[in-house]
Amino acid sequence: MESARRIVLGALTGAALGALFLGLGGRIVMRLLALLIARDGDFSVGGSLEVIAYGAIVGSVSGATYAVLRPHIRVFWWVQGIVLGALTFAGTIATLPPHIAETARPFEGQMTIVLALFGLCFALFGLALARLLLPRR
What we know:
By secondary structure, the chain is mainly alpha-helical.
């Protein structure tokens, strides 16, 4: 029963943090990138909600997975967080829906800044999740 509760807590915490850091944070990064290349980005409430929902879904999966693995990992929580963020970032890139991936096409010449800004969102997500899911003593 304890492991089921830990998984649910991980999924819910991951969903909330995913919506915040990956969804809302990702949407802010998208807006910044549109401003950096002096391009009017399409901005819609529906599109923003889709990005936030996608962040919550990714966060939920990542949080549940981390909750299962965390008891077996013996490194500092912040190392776990950075690795978790990097793995979540890689997994998200690999499974990104085509219509969302297509929005990166105008930035092909500036992928370093794109990856750095989105990577920051994922690092903050991983750190927050690892910190919040620390075992209570």
